[in-house]
């Protein structure tokens, strides 16, 4: 069929698609992008610190997405027996909290496929997420963790600068209605997360994450990731999860099958039948 | 020739559509990839909003009785990128929807491909991350 189209028609079609890709509105652009090189240095604030502010998008090279064991051999997390039991519980008795419009928390948001925005001030830094969630972290090297912080999804977060690295140290996490990643891996209330955020150049932000949870993991492990800067007109859109969550009544327990590539989803889905062309049917 | 152009356009659209879907829930936690389904029905309600759009169809079962179906597609931005725009669905339109049925056997489906009333075929993306590409 394609052979019956003239070359000029094909060229026109391809040009049209390319043009439409360029002209799409900010809301229509993909949520992830291929990684790219950057030659521009990171911007700095008036105080001389790197400015992490920006709309940050995951790269397509980040694989497997949504898996907190991304950087471990075979993505195998070092679960304790209690951690194994918690994973089994998550897989067989819990619905993905995020799909029920419960905050994803730390470190799950760092493994998400959705972009996020950082707004950095002198004494606080805000991370804004799709789902219209946020976390607000004080930057104050003098602040210490509470003796018994109120458990929360993002934990008690304390920020400080170490040179050009923004360190966020968090404890005090909830241990119910939480998955540590998209694949239903668990964390306990003993979770301790240390994020080390840098902006290596203008177009990238990077995190090195240390995850400690002696109840559920036999040893600390790390998760690192780099995001690319979105276009100047790209920003978070309203994402009112709880407005009309039809899915809540239909979701099963757990994430479903985990594929060999470490992401959730089916391995061999049945194909849809081919589309049946039909004549236009005027609206009623 | 028109069908050929339509097929080529659809192929190109798929190639350029990208694969990222705003993750709100796992496709595999809700839908059965071994239960493809095709529905024809009239649109009775449309909810075009993040994180997923929903539309509702009055279809008929095998005995000809009316059955209400809930159809879920991707996020508005992802759909728009694929050429499926707000306004393409109109109340009362008769459309055909191909996708996958909910695992719990309810009358809910992942509306993966939609044949609009004007005959145009648009991609409904994936109702959840990890869905069939």
Tally of structural domains of chain B:
1
CATH architecture annotation name of the domain at 46-238 in chain A? Beta Barrel
Name given to the CATH homologous superfamily of the domain at 46-238 in chain A: Calycin beta-barrel core domain
* CATH fold-level assignment of the domain at 46-238 in chain A: Lipocalin
- Provide the low-confidence segments of chain A as ranges: 1-6, 8-23
* SSE topology string of chain B: HHEEEHEEE
Tell the overall outline of chain B: globular
From the N-terminal CA to the C-terminal CA of chain B, the straight-line distance is 27 Å
Oligomer: heterodimer
Radius of gyration of chain B: 14 Å
Spatial order of the strands forming the largest sheet of chain B: 1-2-3-5-4
Helix and strand composition category of chain A: alpha+beta
Tell me the fraction of residues in β-strands of chain A, as a range.
Answer: 15-25%
Proper CATH architecture of chain B: Beta Barrel
Model description:
The complex is a heterodimer of chains A (about 280) and B (about 130). Chain A is globular. In chain A, strands 1, 2, 3, 4, 5, 6, 7, 8, 9 and 10 form a 10-stranded mixed β-sheet that branches. Chain A has about 280 residues and is of the alpha+beta class. Chain A contains 2 helices and 10 strands. Chain A has a domain of about 190 residues: Calycin beta-barrel core domain (Lipocalin). The N terminus of chain A is likely disordered. Chain B has a single domain, classed as Nucleic acid-binding proteins (OB fold (Dihydrolipoamide Acetyltransferase, E2P)), CATH 2.40.50. Chain B is built from 3 helices and 6 strands; from the N terminus they run ααβββαβββ. In chain B, strand 2 and strand 3 form a beta hairpin. The two termini of chain B are about 25 Å apart. The chains are: A alpha+beta (about 280), B alpha+beta (about 130).
